[in-house]
Amino acid sequence: MDYMHPELKRAQRSFRSNMAEQRNEYWLQASRQHILQKLQQVRNTNRAKNIILFLGDGMGLATLAAARSYMGGEELQLSFEQFPHTGLSKTYCVDKMVPDSASTSTSYLCGVKANYGTIGVNAHIQRGDCVAMANASNHVYSVGKWALDAGKAAGLVTTTRVTHASPSGVYAHTADREWENDARLNEACGAAAQPLNDIALQLIHGEVGSRLKVMLGGGKRNFFDPEHDSKGQRTDGRDLPAEFEQLAAGNVYVKNRNQLQSIKANETNRLLGLFSKSHMHYHLEQLADEKNTEPTLAEMTQKALELLQSEQQGYFLFVEGGKIDISHHDTMARIALDETVELSKAVALARQLTSEQDTLIVVTSDHSHTFSLGGYQARGSDVFSPAKSNASDGKSYLPISYANGKSFEEYYNMTLHERVEPKEFPGAGDAYQVFPATAPLESETHGGEDVAVFASGPWAHLFSGVYEQNAIPHMMAFAACVGAGQTACDQSASNDAFA
């Protein structure tokens, strides 16, 4: 594993050397300090000039806990866990108890709960309803558009395809998250597809997409006909990045890390970066590949901020660590935890590059997974290694597991009707190791429990408590004085009401 993750050796477990934890005073003093920190907090009621929403796709509470162990100790904190205000959001969608990333993006970006598989539309639209999608009265708009309409800039960054479910919530309206290019849309809708636009086309020419200043991530295949790129999946003969550059002087399209890092904010009007055919590679894969040409999430975030910080009216930026979710679906816990740490790095960088006085940063997840961290393994032990005690069948067990997923048969012998000994698992220790699943499914599912919300900056205290996920964009809009709802700038609301 070390060759794929050179930082791992520097993050050795610290518990055994911390003898202070054995003394009462250590814990008493830590509690006193926590209370003092809370007492010293002053509510920031400044108007938020800037908003940055970080999304850890599939980053449930168990993922956060396991990521701390992966970092080097249960007592450690991810960068955003140091934010002063936290809450929980309820993630269900209109038609399902456990949601997907499309319906949730509509919730935490557009402020309206919708049906599973749909993006930027209300619950009048069922997934796949081409006719209803054509009715613009069913469309809902994101806090990104609210910011644009108020004179701010807006952008998005993701490690998935820029046309994937989460980032699409910033700019798209679609009855099906799969309609990322015209081929998929036409296949599904036939003649009814004529008045509709696929997600990639909406990013380049749509009402919101055509106004975004920064768009960075993967998904080149949805923007090209094979005539222009052999891996393109469009069927309309178009080269959308070329069309983007032709829209205005200063529009720049980049394809790799070197090109991205060479971009100068004062010479760039709008920036489109597509760094892979589909989703970008896992961070561990980037580290292992000497020929890697993809930027990290932190590098993309930094460049996005460089371009946006020149905006006098401020900006809204959406940043997604999208491959936490994808690795969880494949029950590859090591990678999921590493992707979580990468998100933490990007958040830390953003908080360092901005001021808490005028920039609200919110970090949350769209949903959790069936990932769990259990057993009674010792502090300081490897979170990926078997617990010291055995299960009642005499075999060892792993602290990390999933309620379902395609790894079921890796750990259960269907012929002998017994578990496979985890210590004998051939992939143990490998970055791509899969972890046990209880029920056999082709892809592990999402979880339905609440997810955490962390906030820092103006009006961050609004994000405390337990609330519906669709409240999140309204609270951000309140802090920034954008959108059609009540805001901190309303003349009709006294300052005392919000103190």
User: How much β-strand is present in the residues?
Assistant: 15-25%
Radius of gyration: 23 Å
- Kindly state the number of beta strands: 17
**Total number of helices:** 17
- Label the overall shape: globular
Structural class: alpha/beta
Name the average pLDDT.
Answer: 94
* Helix percent band: 25-40%
Q: Order of strands across the biggest sheet? A: 5-6-4-3-7-1-8-16-2-17
Major β-sheet, in short?
10 strands, mixed
Low-confidence stretches: 1-11
Q: What is the straight-line distance between the termini? A: 51 Å
Quick recap:
The model is unreliable at 1-11 (pLDDT under 50). Helix content is 29%, strand content 16%.
What does this structure look like?
This protein has helices at 24-40, 61-71, 101-110, 130-133, 143-149, 165-168, 182-189, 199-205, 240-247, 257-261, 283-288, 297-308, 323-329, 333-353, 408-411, 471-480, 495-498, and strands at residues 50-56, 85-90, 153-161, 214-218, 251-254, 270-274, 315-321, 359-364, 368-369, 371-373, 400-405, 412-413, 418-419, 437-440, 446-447, 451-456, 465-468. It is an alpha/beta fold. The longest helix is centred in the C-terminal third of the chain and has 21 residues, at 333-353. The radius of gyration is 23 Å and the shape is globular. Residues 1-11 have low confidence and may be disordered.
Secondary structure blueprint with pairings:
Elements: H1 24-40, E1 50-56, H2 61-71, E2 85-90, H3 101-110, H4 130-133, H5 143-149, E3 153-161, H6 165-168, H7 182-189, H8 199-205, E4 214-218, H9 240-247, E5 251-254, H10 257-261, E6 270-274, H11 283-288, H12 297-308, E7 315-321, H13 323-329, H14 333-353, E8 359-364, E9 368-369, E10 371-373, E11 400-405, H15 408-411, E12 412-413, E13 418-419, E14 437-440, E15 446-447, E16 451-456, E17 465-468, H16 471-480, H17 495-498
Parallel strand pairs: 1-7, 1-8, 2-17, 3-4, 3-7, 4-6, 5-6, 11-14
Antiparallel strand pairs: 2-16, 8-16, 9-15, 10-11, 12-13
Helix pairs in contact: 2-14, 3-16, 8-9, 12-14, 13-14
